[in-house]
Specification:
With about 240 residues, this protein is of the alpha/beta class. Helices cover about 50% and strands about 15% of the residues. A hairpin with a 4-residue loop joins β2 (about 95-100) and β3. α1 (about 1-65) crosses α2 (about 120-125). The longest helix is centred in the first third of the chain and has 64 residues, at about 1-65. The relative contact order is 0.13.
Length: about 240
């Protein structure tokens, strides 16, 4: 009986020590884990709040600035070396989206970097009542369609002319014919000097993107503000 009591007491004491140590170790671990997770959550919450505020500010400031400014009725965008950084026809289908930065990756692992400002550009165009079209000399229209759908831009693009040609005069004329919007009421962005020059010759206000830079929100914003001046410069020639 005595030996059983001693064994029981020893077992009880060991259990008590283990429980107390375990409690403090567990308590400290849980506290650190909780602290880390709260810290991480706080960082993410702060970042998300900041991003939301930045987006809101960008939109509010932009829309306020355009109250008394003549705006284009149609934004026409080139794709290769303007919205993204290479010729899309060199990619292999199927394409997929890289969630981290919104870039596109093809079946071989090749990455197509898309301007990070595309979302803001399309948002502002929509808020200001400007239609958006695409004029591309790519010979892979289905690949272009797939890419635009992946980056969530396909529903914003009202008119699309994607086919290979010497320049984009006919692309722009077809957008004019399909939309009923005059060439002089468009604002066209492209990276190639000869294409921008030929667009200007048929009366399309145009802005050249200096590749390797892609179209940024700042360039888009400044071009909208100076649209009347760009348009007047063409009409006076």
């Amino acid at each position: 009986g005595m030996s059983k009591s001693i064994i029981f007491m020893l077992f009880f004491n060991l259990l008590l020590v283990y429980s107390v140590c375990g409690f403090w170790i567990d308590k400290e671990t849980k506290a650190k884990t909780l602290e880390n997770s709260l810290f991480q959550k706080s960082i993410w919450d702060d970042m998300n709040t900041l991003l939301t505020e930045v987006e809101k500010t960008v939109l509010d400031v932009s829309l306020e600035e355009f109250k008394d400014v003549e705006l284009p009725k149609m934004i026409v965008l080139d794709l290769d070396h303007t919205l993204w950084d290479q010729k899309i026809q060199e990619l292999k289908t199927p394409l997929s989206l890289q969630q981290e930065d919104g870039s596109i990756i093809d079946s071989t692992g090749k990455i197509l970097h898309v301007t990070p400002d595309l979302k803001h550009i399309l948002q502002v165009a929509k808020k200001l009542g400007c239609s958006v079209s695409v004029a591309s000399r790519s010979n892979k229209p289905e690949l272009v369609k797939e890419a635009l759908e992946l980056i969530g831009a396909s529903h914003d693009v009202k008119f699309s002319q994607v086919w290979f040609g010497a320049n984009k005069d006919v692309h722009l004329q077809k957008i004019h014919k399909d939309s009923g919007i005059n060439l002089s009421d468009m604002l066209f962005f492209d990276d190639e000097t000869k294409i921008v020059d030929s667009a200007k010759k048929i009366g399309v206000p145009s802005v050249q993107i200096k590749y390797p830079n892609l179209l940024t929100f700042n360039t888009f914003h400044d071009s909208l503000l100076s649209y009347q001046e760009i348009k007047s410069g063409l009409l006076s020639k």
